[in-house]
Amino acid sequence: MPSERQVGHTMLCLTPSGFSEHRRAIRLCQDQFENLEKHTQWGIDFVERYTKFVKERSEIELNYAKQIRNLSKKYQPKKNAKEEEESKYTWCRAFFTSLNELNDYAGQHELIAENMTSQIIAELTRYIQDLKSERKTHFQDGRKAQQHIENSWKQLEQCKRNFERACKEADRAQQYFEKMDADYNVTKADVEKARQQAQLRHQMASDCKSEYSNYLQKFNQEQTEHYHTLIPNIFQKIQDMEERRIERVGESMKTFAEVDRQILPIVGKCLDGMTKAAEGIEPKTDSAQVVESYKSGFEPPGDVEFEDYGQAMKRTVSETSLTNSRSESKPDKSSKGKKLFFFKKNKLSLKLVSMCLK
Amino acid sequence: MPSERQVGHTMLCLTPSGFSEHRRAIRLCQDQFENLEKHTQWGIDFVERYTKFVKERSEIELNYAKQIRNLSKKYQPKKNAKEEEESKYTWCRAFFTSLNELNDYAGQHELIAENMTSQIIAELTRYIQDLKSERKTHFQDGRKAQQHIENSWKQLEQCKRNFERACKEADRAQQYFEKMDADYNVTKADVEKARQQAQLRHQMASDCKSEYSNYLQKFNQEQTEHYHTLIPNIFQKIQDMEERRIERVGESMKTFAEVDRQILPIVGKCLDGMTKAAEGIEPKTDSAQVVESYKSGFEPPGDVEFEDYGQAMKRTVSETSLTNSRSESKPDKSSKGKKLFFFKKNKLSLKLVSMCLK
């Protein structure tokens, strides 16, 4: 077998083992970064999605509060004479009090929306920006480190190739010198020239070897730092960032419930106000008000008196006409002690009577 | 002055006093009925308006519940592979638990709507029908009683007019008889005829008088019953009806608050469920899960070995090619005790690695 092919075979044999371990490490590291990039992006997407969720909840609360407020407003007494009339009755007042409590009730749901906006949505929106920027930094650092070790590797490969080529050339020069040295037909000067050439090549290979050796040492230091310090540190930072994100999400979820829980006692008070208002209704008082409003000063008529036209037959008509008829037409007051429910007498009622009779 | 005019004057004088008292009583009674009709109609209108109010509130609750349910559903995990992936993480599980609690929360507001519908709207709708029918009965009874006393009065007036006319005719017959009796030119037969006529008229007037007297007694009994029993009873029934209506309104208002109050403890439990879910979030566990998911079986590469091509210079290449290069390319395992965070070794990860390298 020619030595040329053997050298070629040696190179193929020497290079792949270190090369494949390096490539596999770089590749797996890259995969890890890609996985973490996907995972952390999913985390950010979740925080954005969660923020959107809270925003939608907040809008539902606002909408609910608005509808409750409108309902309360719609049934409030109209600002006119009727209002005064209505506020006389305990059941009307109770209803209007209920409506006011309902309005406060709506206010509490507005508060949910406000607190969710300020304590969750605004906070998370700011936080997402910070998170995105922090995440970007970590992956940029990762890419930079990967790029750096890749470049170092390429430079090491170059040094190795230089050394290999120099060895081959020194080997070839050595063989040439040995061939010249063994040939009786070659001049001493040519032998000396070949010897010097072999010596020079040997020196060059030796220089390449120390350059390669130095660079190898430097590369191994860098590689150790890369895989044992730099990359683990970046991964750790990403892990810390992820843990802080999860904590933050947990806090927002707690706030979400807390903001809602805070209104419960106030809502309870609004409901108590409604119950109290309803309990303040007095049917007897209200019906007495109706009597007061509609009473007339009128008392039931007494018995109708007998009008005796027969007397005229006994006397001249002129004698009886005015005296008798007037006294007879006076109603008998004796039977009028009992008052009719809606017939009470006082100044107001007399006024009402006169109004009624106009 | 002629007696004709005097009689006429007497009539004008006798009639109005009883007449006006009767008319005023009838009129005022009518006014009372009209006022009460208006007032009770207003009361019924209120109950209808209140029922509409509760219906609108109930619709707002249903709408709110629907929106909350949709929100919960919208953010639930999609039924696919990702769901299983997501449920690995405590923060995902916490969010899904929160969504389920929110769904229950919505259910409580549906319950408000349901209870308002069954306990207030349905009840009041039935009640309004009863109330309308009861009210109609009372005012029909009132109109009937008023009509009856009015008819009795008219009949009494008729009896009185009959008696009055009979008296006038008896008076006229008496005067005619007296004139005939005093006239020397008139035959005894004519005087006798006039006397008999006067006697007949007197008898007729006497009959009318007792008819009038009897009817007057009957009327006065009826009038007393009308104003002291019938009408006050009807008014009392209307008043009772009104008081029951007000009580009923009060009860509905209490139920309105109660139905809402009943859900507060359950809503509180839903919120506690959300808080508990959020408290169950474990950032460390979650990040450990991420490590588990993305770990590869790979360990950081060891130092790259020096490849001494220079040896070839000393020996024949074929001697060194395979033996040295193979042993030299083996990485030094001594420095690999420390594990990189994302580089753990196990079956799963080896599988992942092989997938990554394909």
Provide a quick synopsis of the model.
Chains A, B: Residues 317-336 are annotated as: Disordered. With 358 residues, chain A is mainly α.
How would you describe this protein?
The structure is a homodimer of 358-residue chains. By secondary structure, chain A is an all-alpha fold. Chain A has a domain at 45-291: Substrate Binding Domain Of Dnak, Chain:A, Domain 2 (Up-down Bundle), CATH 1.20.1270. Chain A has helices spanning 3-74, 81-86, 90-182, 188-279, 283-294, 311-314, 317-329, 347-357. In chain A, helix 1 (3-74) packs parallel to helix 4.
Features:
homodimer, 358 residues, mainly alpha, Substrate Binding Domain Of Dnak, Chain:A, Domain 2, 85% helix, disordered N terminus, disordered C terminus, FCH_dom (chains A, B)
Which range best describes the helical content of chain A: under 10%, 10-25%, 25-40%, 40-55%, 55-70% or over 70%? over 70%
The CATH class designation of the domain at 45-291 in chain A is: Mainly Alpha
The CATH topology label of the domain at 45-291 in chain A is Substrate Binding Domain Of Dnak, Chain:A, Domain 2
The biggest sheet of chain A, with number of strands, parallel, antiparallel or mixed sense and barrel status, is: none
What's the architecture of the domain at 45-291 in chain A in CATH terms?
Up-down Bundle
What kind of assembly state do the chains in view correspond to?
A: homodimer
InterPro entries (chains A, B): AH/BAR_dom_sf (IPR027267), F_BAR_dom (IPR031160), FCH_dom (IPR001060)
Organism (chains A, B): Astyanax mexicanus (Blind cave fish)
Protein name (chains A, B): Formin binding protein 1
GO molecular function (chains A, B): lipid binding
